[in-house]
Design brief:
heterodimer; A: alpha/beta; six-stranded mixed sheet; four-stranded antiparallel sheet; 7 helices; globular; B: about 300 residues; alpha+beta; 9 helices; 4 strands; about 65% helix
Chain lengths: ~220, ~300
Amino acid sequence: MISLFHVDMVYPGNVQALTDVCLEVAKGEFVFVTGSSGAGKTTLLKLILGAEKATRGQIIVNGRNITRIRRSKIAHFRRQIGFIFQDFKLLPHKTVFDNVAIAKEVAGGAPKEIRKSTYLALQSVGLKDKRDKKPPSLSGGEQQRVAIARALVNDPVLILADEPTGNLDHDLAMEIMGQLMKVNEKGTTILIATHDKELVRRFGMKQVVLEKGRIVDICF
Amino acid sequence: MRWYRGTYVLKKTVTNLRDHFKVHLLTAATVGVTLTILGVYLLLQTNLRGLANSWGEQVQVIAYLGHGLSAERQRALQALIRRMPEVEGVVYRSPAEAMEALRVTLGEHKDILEGLDENPLPGSFEIKVKKEFYKMKVLEAIALRLRQEEGITDVQYGGAWMERFLAVLKIVRVVGISLGVLLLFATLAIISNTLRLAFYARREEIEIMRLVGATEFFINLPLRLEAMVQGGLGGLISLGVLYVLYRIFLAEFRTYWSQFGGWGGPVFLDPVAMVTLVVLGLLLGLTGSFLRLERAPDSR
């Protein structure tokens, strides 16, 4: 599903974020990317999403080399991927339904199809009854579930989650992880960046350890 | 684009216009002010040209004839003048007709002519010159040539002021175009900055749209439509303001233009000019949106 070959990422100002990263993630895998702050976890996820362009190396995602993909094709490529953020990235003035539907709308679904997919995505995270609420009126866990529903609405082959439990207490974090496990069981590949060692230990999935932009360990 | 994509974009545009109504109205008003100034220039240009045309009707050369000129010589001179390439037409005015015209001009003071034993006024040719020859040099050349003809005692022409007027018209045109271009650039900058504000107000939403796979075209289209609505609205505002100004001008100066002989008074912009102003507004909006959006920050 994901292959990285000798990837370097240098930000302007000669800030080396990733160095010679090689990684293979198979279809349907559940992988934690761990490391302390500044280790390069978010950069790695952004490269896979095509939100940043690698300075060196090749990145193949779902059969496409995204280091060579045309800028105009990036948008279409991203529709196969769901992204979940630590700070949820929900639009506070829009309803829960609209926040989820936006991903389907930009993908060009017909109104009926958008309604159906959004409803199903909200149902899968247990929030169909809160579809008319605005995000600020929801708890942190509920907001992150809305973000998961948005990531799911286009039936992605891959979900990238950047510290998805970072703003949640332990119980809510477990609830969100449970949701992601359920999604993974249906065959969706999941890559989670986290610095929460306890979370990784508890779920015991494949772990890619980053340190100062280099992969220092891959353990199972 | 499928119909529901179009509907989505339109809904988005309307929502954005509603959500940032004051900013959009302010920009439309700014566009309106620019186009009003351009419109005033257009009105000025149209009406000065109209005035020039009506005065142009009166540009003529008058050749005075000696007393006792034979009818045969008079006909020969008339034929000679008619053949001149610069001449559009020539009319003979007899001494009696000249006297009658003078009486009419004198009006209530015509009594002063009662004491005359005989008509002292000469016969004359009133020569109308073609419009393309409204130039001092041409009028002078015609006068010089006619003065050399036997039987013509004097030649007068009143075109000097017309040439000066046309020169002024030319200056008005150049100043108007220069001012217009400067104003258009200023307006483009204003529209572009308004959209920049709108963009930053929505940057979170746009960032999310990009991350979930929205194309730049899909993100930018509502912004471009908003800019066009602003521009078009600005055009309509300018037409409204211009019409009010025009009506005020008509009411205030109604009595004055009867003195500009032959001129029917100021006219408003013709439909083509009105449509042009609104279309110019739309294009200003669209161009402004390109200036802004092409520099929009992108994550990649």
